[in-house]
Specification:
Helix content is 40%, strand content 22%. The protein has 21 helices and 23 strands. The radius of gyration is 28 Å and the shape is globular.
Length: 737
């Protein structure tokens, strides 16, 4: 094999090694026991006391009463005087057609002076019914307690309010209840703490808009920043919600921080104290204490919108959005002129774009093929292997286009075209997420400077290009790592376009090396690396003790027929033989959910009755009707009322907390939920634009399964557990209202 071919294959291996090594640049702080500083071990000890037996504790449940009692006892032991606000509240969402109601008890403690504008630190203490919530949001509870224990001994210039709210998991209900609390009128700044996993660094992923003051405070206070304006834009665009979704209507200075590592434990029994990484708690606590200390002295005067990102958690770069836009346009013009002068603005740009497209398409194709051969989330136990296989595939597709169609261009021509295209992509992305601009400024500036200096010193262009490619990799690798965590449940191929963007400058710089090497052997070697990675990914265990399969068992009874069935919510993997024998199973949907399930016939469960609604009052006004209904839960812990499109729901809620949706939101399916023991006997109010009776679906569910489910539970796969939805008994009926 020729030396040039070996060198080309070495470049391929080096690029893939860099893609695999990107997580090495993310670090977590060491645990510390320094007076006056955040102590994660002490914080986790408090959390262990509060969680007790680590039973799931959804809002308005006896288990949450116990958690709240221990939380109040801890606050009093710290010398604070907590108050409890008991409210039956409802909340609605901009991102979903839903009104959620529950009785919530917010726990509030105030530090420092009793007057003046307050800094609010917020976390929720309820969990989902499927798990104990040690991270979600025990990490927030532990953070608030430890920060509060430190700040209470400091002379504070303004009030610092600790809010432990209830009902976040049901629909941000505690946050909505707090906005109705007079104490909320004193707030002007907010630090919120959340989790979508159990480990990893504390990511500041959401701010208020405009964000100038928030980012000024963050940049000045946090020693090891981990944040980007692209992430905050993504948080605004995706359907996920935290309490900040509700708080943001007040326009407070806002910083929202969370951890997202290992989603497989999130909202499951695996979200326990053993799974919560104390180093992640230390990172969140350090950030919380630094920000609270900074903001307790007052909000910074900065204004406007800023774009920002961190480099290796050591440097925090920020600038006004307007500066970023002008900077991007200048770079775009500069590289456009160079690419035009070198004759590559059309052909060279097309080659680089073709490489990016080929990388994405080929990665999608390989993921699709492997998914067809191996059902379920086959990468769940070892996602890093599948991601590396995707990067090897993306590199193969990119390299193939560069070698086949880019052979007639020199390195200098493709270099100019590559950066011109990347800047075009940055401008296009900025139309949806302006915060992305920050990622397209500094590396190309270094490259452009190299172009300029090369008039007097010829090697400057190569030096600038290599330095720009390296910095581009360092700044984008953290972003790619975040995407891996976000899309670890799937679709995993979506990381391929970002990976191909990161690899493009490096492959362009090696263009001459690839040009001298054997095309056939280089492509065969690259393909062999990708194939080997996919073979390992396909052969690796799909699930493990730490990364378990999502697998929820339900017993569902339809009324009035009384027909019962087993339902399994899983990830599409093949059922174990013991469960298959309990079939036949078929896939389908329930009429209140779009999620596919497996169904099989089941014996009736004794004592299961559907909830019911008793009309109390009907008020008509033309084609509009207002209904007052009494809820009878009949043993259900969660009640769901699904309205068909023809109901045209205008508002819904409980007396004193009816959420208006506006006529423009009245079309389409709509859901009203009430969760907790206080729903039984409570009143529900609906306003709908429908003069005729409407057929609603009414669903009641309670945790646990009937005794007849013992065999199914025993046959559940070894590394499988409920996630998002607990094992439960469900009763479904229909009512005309």
């Amino acid at each position: 094999m020729r030396r040039d071919t070996l060198l080309a294959l070495a470049v391929v291996i080096l690029v893939l090694g860099a893609m695999a090594a990107k997580s090495m640049f993310v670090s977590l702080p060491q645990l510390r026991n320094t007076p006056g500083q955040f102590n994660a071990e002490r914080a986790k000890t408090r959390l262990a006391f509060i969680l007790g037996d680590q039973a799931p504790h959804p809002a308005d449940s006896p288990a949450d009463d116990m958690v709240r009692g221990r939380l109040i006892a801890t606050l009093r032991q710290m010398g604070l005087a907590p108050v409890v606000r008991d409210q039956f509240a409802c909340n609605d969402f901009q991102k979903a057609r839903l009104v959620a109601c529950a009785r919530v008890r917010n726990v509030i403690a105030v530090l420092g002076p009793q007057s003046g504008k307050a800094l609010l630190l917020s976390a929720h203490y309820d969990s989902v019914p499927a798990g104990p919530g040690a991270a979600d949001d025990g990490i927030g509870v532990a953070t608030l307690l430890e920060v509060g224990s430190i700040l209470k001994d400091r002379p504070l210039k303004r009030p610092v309010m600790l809010l432990f709210n209830e009902g976040e998991e049901l629909g941000l209900i505690g946050a909505r209840a707090f906005l109705a609390d007079p104490l909320s009128l004193n707030v002007d700044s907010l630090l919120n703490f959340e989790a979508r996993g159990v480990n990893g660094p504390a990511v500041m992923f959401e701010t208020n808009q405009p964000n100038g003051a928030a980012i000024a405070a963050y940049g000045a206070a946090v020693e090891h920043p981990f944040a980007s304006s692209l992430s905050t834009d993504v948080a605004r665009l995706i359907p996920n919600d935290t309490d900040v979704t509700t708080y943001k209507e007040r326009g407070w200075l806002t910083l929202n921080t969370g951890i997202v590592g290992n989603e497989t434990r999130y909202h499951s029994p695996g979200d326990d104290l053993s799974g919560l990484d104390p180093h992640s708690l230390q990172d969140m606590g350090d950030e919380a204490l630094a920000l609270a200390s900074k903001l307790s002295a007052g909000a910074p005067p900065a204004k406007g919108t800023r774009i920002f990102f961190d480099v290796l958690q050591r440097f925090f770069i920020q600038m006004p959005l307007s500066v970023g836009i002008v900077w991007l346009l200048v770079l775009l013009s500069g590289f456009g002129a160079i690419a035009r002068r070198r004759g590559s603005i059309v052909g060279g740009t097309a080659v680089v774009l073709g490489g990016l497209v080929a990388a994405g398409v080929l990665s999608w194709l390989l993921v699709t093929i492997v998914s067809a051969l191996r059902a379920g989330v086959f990468w769940r136990a070892h996602p890093e292997i599948s991601f590396l296989a995707i990067y090897a595939t993306a590199l193969l597709g990119e390299l193939a286009i560069f070698r086949i169609f880019g052979a007639k261009f020199g390195t200098g021509q493709l270099r100019a075209a590559c950066w011109f295209l990347l800047l075009l992509l940055g401008g296009a992305l900025a139309l949806v997420a302006p915060g992305a601009i920050i990622y397209f400024l500094i590396p190309p500036t270094i490259v452009l400077a190299g172009f300029a200096v090369s008039r007097w010193y010829a090697p400057a262009e190569l030096i600038g290009a290599l330095a720009g490619a390296l910095l581009f990799y360092l700044t984008w690798s953290e972003l790619l790592g975040g995407l891996e965590e976000i899309f670890s449940p799937g679709p995993i191929w979506i990381v391929a376009p970002v990976a191909s963007i990161i690899m493009a400058p490096a492959l362009i710089e090696a263009h001459a090396i690839f040009g001298r090497a054997s095309r056939r052997l280089t492509m065969l070697g690259s393909a062999a690396l990708a194939l080997a990675a996919w073979i390992v990914a396909g052969a690796a265990p799909a699930y493990s003790q730490d990364h378990q399969q999502r697998f929820t068992i339900e017993h569902v009874t339809q009324f009035p027929s009384g027909q019962s069935s087993w339902s399994i919510l899983d990830d599409g993997a093949d059922l174990p033989s013991a469960l298959s024998a309990m079939g036949p199973w078929h896939r389908g949907k329930l009429d209140f959910s779009e999620r596919q399930r497996l169904f099989a016939s089941a014996p009736a469960a004794a004592g299961v009755r559907p909830p019911s609604l008793t009309p109390l009052e009907v008020v008509r006004s033309g084609d509009e009707r207002r209904l007052r209904l009494r809820i009878q839960s009949n043993g259900a812990e969660r009640i769901l009322l699904a309205a068909p499109p023809e109901a045209h729901i205008r508002s819904a809620g409980v007396p004193g907390f009816v959420r208006s949706l506006g006529s423009e939101d009245s079309s389409g399916r709509f859901t009203i939920t009430c969760t907790g023991r206080s729903c039984d006997g409570s009143e529900l109010q609906l306003d709908l634009f429908s003069p005729k009776p409407v057929r609603f679906t009414l669903v009641g569910s309670r945790n646990g399964l009937p005794a007849t489910a013992a065999a199914l539970v025993k046959a559940r796969p070894k590394f499988a557990r409920p996630q998002y939805t607990p094992d439960e008994t469900v009763a479904v009926t229909h009512v005309r209202l």
